[in-house]
């Protein structure tokens, strides 16, 4: 396929996210604009408390937006029923599964819920999707282990496999690399990159690994509090937007190496 | 890994055990009846002695059926609550249903003292106890359901349920303080729980409630599975959280409410049986767990009742004490062996 205009899957226009507080709106982040296409891996970076998780929850339909518009496949988010949205967006949250007694296979199979009958039994198609998810995340060997036996890195791969089994064009991940060592952080992000390009998915992940995200993301959304920038990592570096992420007295962004260095 | 085949074997074993204990339960007691006579009495309608017939049909058979319904129903509602609140310590009475029932009965028995003499005694009949307990748990249920419509957080619902329990326990304590010894004893006997003395009408009503509650539970099994991941994940997979919470609380209330109305507040079974079942059925799929927990609950309750009626003696021990005496060591043993309480 050589279509120049890629299909746009997720779009935000002048979006403002936050909380409703006793009828008053409390905005956490405002004027967010972006449009994500299929096959795109998007890194979402920003300081703690800047509204990354709030934005992800709003995009996933878990909390209402304050103003602006969110378009999922060019249709307003609020036009989707809970079930219809589950066919479009899957999530990987920071919270672990409530029950650690689930086996890996059971947990991943739960991702098929939007497609199964009222009994929740898996059809052949569901089983294939689960097997594909196991394969893509290299979790076949632990399929019959219980979740409480897994390491953080393995658990994260299983959580991603569940989202894959849900088979949605859009996947949102909230800090998938926290608690992981350098190898596993790189492993997870490379996996996301592969899934985005090979399976034509739109994958948005929030992270504090800015240098890894710069190396692997197709585009990035930088939230600084005053303004939010959406562009390719190169353009963002050129424009000096990463410098606006943190107060400059402690760390600064080195354009040449593409990483932050501590001021001595 | 356990397959459907393994589960099938477990289910068959459980059913056979249930049938065996069921017959033993009817056969044993202050008057011991041979097993073949029991079978005759139940199916042929005629045991060789008239008194045996009377004992089987009018006393032991209804009691055994009540034990099966109460044990299974309480165990399933315990499972529902543990999943809904994602808390291994939850049981059928966390929402304050049993305290509601206790309040109803306490008001009836202890409050009837205020009317004095004849009227007071007339009020405290067998059916009025059932009605008072049903009304009590129904009112608490209504309060809890109203709360679930307003409060989103399931943990908040759990704490509100506990608060309801505290308030009703306090009212019962005040009532007890002002009551005479005789009334107090009557109330305490009710709180011991009792599976016996059920009329056949009562059993039909109880069965209807149990079937209704179980149907709602089975219909919710897919949602229950989703809740194992937590509310946010469940919602992201297309689950309506409020509708599901409502259905699960409704099923629990019907099951636990009806059972408490007929058999009194029976503790422990609802909390322990799901954990015991999980040791054998290594799955989190509620479509398997609900029938498994149902059978294990019925089995445990029948065993406890067989012990409670003290074979070859004229005494019957309070069932509420026996369930804990038999069940608690089992749970402790399982936990010491596994060193983990997971749900």
TrEMBL record, chain A:
Q: Name one Pfam family in it.
A: ABC_tran
Alphabetical keyword list:
ATP-binding, Nucleotide-binding, Transport
State the CDD domains in the record.
Answer: ABC_Iron-Siderophores_B12_Hemin (cd03214)
Looking up SMART domains in the UniProt record yields: AAA
Instruction: List the InterPro entries hit by this protein, alphabetically.
Output: AAA+_ATPase, ABC_transporter-like_ATP-bd, Metal_Ion_Import_ABC, P-loop_NTPase
Gene Ontology MF terms in the entry: ATP binding; ATP hydrolysis activity
What is the scientific name of the source organism?
Marixanthomonas spongiae
User: Locate the ABC transporter domain: which residues?
Assistant: 10-250
Protein name, per record: ABC transporter ATP-binding protein
PROSITE patterns in the record, alphabetically? ABC_TRANSPORTER_2
Automatic annotation (TrEMBL), chain B:
Q: Tell me where on the tree of life, at the top rank, the source sits.
A: Bacteria
Task: State the membrane topology.
Answer: Multi-pass membrane protein
Keywords (alphabetical) are:
Cell membrane, Membrane, Transmembrane, Transmembrane helix, Transport
Kindly give the InterPro entries that the UniProt entry links to this protein: ABC_BtuC-like, ABC_transptr_permease_BtuC
Gene Ontology molecular functions: transmembrane transporter activity
- Which coarse location class describes where this protein primarily resides? membrane
Protein location: Cell membrane
A biological-process GO annotation = siderophore-iron import into cell
Q: Which CDD domains match?
A: TM_ABC_iron-siderophores_like
Q: State one Pfam family annotation.
A: FecCD
Listed GO CC annotations = plasma membrane
Query: Which ranges does the record mark as transmembrane?
Result: 64-81, 93-115, 127-149, 156-179, 199-219, 245-273, 285-304, 316-336
Tell me which family the UniProt entry assigns to this protein: Belongs to the binding-protein-dependent transport system permease family. FecCD subfamily.
Which PANTHER family does this chain map to? FERRIC ENTEROBACTIN TRANSPORT SYSTEM PERMEASE PROTEIN (PTHR30472), TRANSPORT SYSTEM PERMEASE PROTEIN (PTHR30472:SF41)
Protein name as catalogued = Iron ABC transporter
- The organism is Marixanthomonas spongiae
Q: Source organism lineage?
A: Bacteria, Pseudomonadati, Bacteroidota, Flavobacteriia, Flavobacteriales
